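EI: anyone free to look at a 244-residue chain?
SC: sure, send it
EI:
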Amino acid sequence: MTSIQEEIRDVSAAISALPLAEEPFVHGVADRFLPSALYRQLSDAFPDFERTAADPGDVADGDGQRAFERYRHRATVTPATLRSATLPRPMLRFAAIALSNPVVETWIRKFTPAIAAARDGTPWQTHPGGTFEPGVEFVADRTGYELPPHTDGALKLLTALMYVGPDEEDAEIGTCLFEPVVPGTVSDGDQGYTFDSMREVRRVASRGNRCLAFARTPVSFHGVRQVAAGKSRRLVQFSIKYVL
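SC: here you go
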């Protein structure tokens, strides 16, 4: 069995090799991103994870429920909760790799130029003394889930989505990358936008072991169109925040 240190090196190398595109904002897409054994074990663990989800009918309606409780089952792991998290072992192993210092540092190096260009310098240059807070979120989206265009909150530095599922592309449950219909539109991360206010520039189809990663900028508009009946969407989301 491959050691966790070897997998940390392999994941760090995959991050370093990730090709970046500039439009509609800086992002990278790569297939076969995780080492095959690590991905296979992670994928095999998702059915057990999904069995812990609440029945949609048991979740009360209310503000924000449509996106994040009624139609989305998720579990978040941070460095502080890694030891106490109760998830399938392959998920905890992946979280330990993703949250390791070498992997976090490699992600930061990869996207530092994009972060600095969008913010007139990086937050750790303009506001030293803060801390990097990485997190891993295991996600299973049900039929009906949708996420309108947004840029993520201003504290977030970057996001990496790793899709879990068949080795065939499914654009219907992919992630859409947008540009505003009105030129010059920017977001501080607090506003919500409609699909009609954006023009879809690229759709990154869901595919098992595909990674989509991007820096959070005022124009990193992305979202998910409603998951159609009979479909589900599995992924792992890695993110880093800079907190003062």
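EI: The chain has one domain: 4-243.
SC: 👍
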